[in-house]
Amino acid sequence: MNPLVHTPAVALRRLAATSLIAAALLLPAAAAARQPQPPAPPASGPTLAVVHELEQQGRVDPEQAVARLQRLLPLAPAGGPERVELLTVLGLIHGARREAAQVHGVVEQLEALGGAAARAAALVVHAGLDYFSGDLSRAEPQLAQALALLPADAPLQGRFRVLYQLTEIQTGRGRIEQALASAHQAIRVADGSGVALLRSRARSQLAYVLLRGGQLQRAHDLSREAVALAPTDAERSSARQVEAMVLARRNDARGEREATLDALQLARRAGWRSQEGLMLGNLADSYLARGEYETARRHAAQALVIARELKDTPSESLALTNLGLAEIGLKRLEAGRAHIERALSIERNAGARAEEAEVLDEMGAALERAGDWAGAIDAYHRLRELQDAMAQTSRQRALLEMQERFDNERRARELALLQREGQLHDAQLQAQVRHRWLWAAVALACGLALTLVIVLARRLRHANRRLMDSNARLRQQAGCDPLTGLANRRFAHEVLQRQAGASFEGTLMLIDLDHFKRINDTAGHAAGDAVLVEAGRRLHDTLREGDQLARWGGEEFLIAVQPALQPEQAEQLAERLLHRLGDTPVVLASHTLRLTASIGFASFPPPAEGERLAVPWERALRLVDGLMYAAKARGRNRACGLKALRLPGAAGLARAETALDDAERRGELVLAEIAGPT
Description:
The structure is a single chain. The chain is α+β, with helices and mostly antiparallel strands. It has 29 helices and nine strands. The radius of gyration is 32 Å and the shape is flat.
């Protein structure tokens, strides 16, 4: 697997071995283990040049860099820029290693120094820890505040550091326009400094941002400039890595492989083990994509050795996944599954549910290619269960937040009402203290108070109605897929589960667009989104009013028809859906695509001999899911449906779930197969 090149949404995770460290240690990072160490500082204390050379060393040998920085700290003047830079570099190295206690200690020392430069440095160090911990939304405003605090005479290297890290975070959050503005500002600072390494790194970063924005030619030109400017093996390795990413997006497989191999050799020459492991992982993924499984296995095994040596669990998980995919490609299924299960265990222990889902998806696809349909279906079932759990967690979090907002508003209204009632009570006590000649005034005050209570009660009822309307709108929006406008998986699951009760009665159809990943890889994610929108529209136009349609996840759609259709009617509907999707090509700005799908369908209760079988909603979905994979196994562009069970209902249904094809061959059930348009 190679998210760095092929899956931008997960790019930050793959970058953990290199670009994340580069984001924290932005000053010249050229010092490799084989190059001379920085000169000893003068007796009067360390200079900025010495501090920045130690920052270089922190990229390749963080342990030694931390030790030398701590030795230099007592020698730095308390109010000088050298101490601020020493603490900043030390805090960023600790942040890259996720050592929160040490980072907080550095932040306290910086804040104790006082002054705008020290406060800005404290924000940068804290943002670095948030960044490496994956909390980009907290890191970005801290860096923006640090940039505003930097004094005009701050060292250019420090200003470049903030701009570089800000660009990295904006890119990771998908805010490409803001990232481009920050990257251009970083290039101006780097060019003004005259430092070749900063100029090279600024161009590499801008090339990556342009790559994320789809400007491939300009990204390629800048990556070549970065390679030419890079003064050291370590920096040339980073620049060639970005160039390889650009070449991959331009579908230049040969150029990508050459750039990755060159980056690997440069990292080895610089003694940069984490970069070496990353490049080995990228090569393994490249060979997996071309089906050269033995070569991919060798590279993944080398990457695994390095990841374990560095105790880098995210890289270890990636290496184990690549190793497992290669073993499956070589038909060594048990060994492959064992490696991937270890990777899944790492992600599960780290609480990385999105990464765990990605690994399950890739394992299912690999087992499907290897012909292990039972293993593939099991992987996809586990993936769906994990996605359901993630959706449930998200739903619970949203409900808790909504309930908390409601409770806060209710408490605020009650407090306001109590305050007003207290004021009324005080007025009444004061009226009682006065003599009888004030009774008329008291009566008037009571009348006014009653009016006030009535007005407040009406306002409270009106506010409650507005809150209920707002909650209803929020629930409706939460149940809508933002891309296609259809119901989303969570909403459809809730509705069907509520309607089904103890058993589901109706017709279910699960539709998966064929080869959708190929559309994303060749035409881009924007084209993939357009295809999903068009597919949803065609499916919606084919159904009757009252039939339920939802985007079930990724490129899958779910249809529920109630009451249940007869088998012949269900087959006719499946055929109409296949032709509606595939008869007319999808015309995009730069591509014309022919769309096909694999459909699994069944009516419940299923037609069985001897009994009327009650089927729970989740079991009905599993059966339709298996029928959809049967359609894929029979060549895609077709529908596969359950026509009849010839065993008693419970036994026939169990066979249909566990051994569909075998049960059909033995005549224990009857399947309908409908081919799509040719």
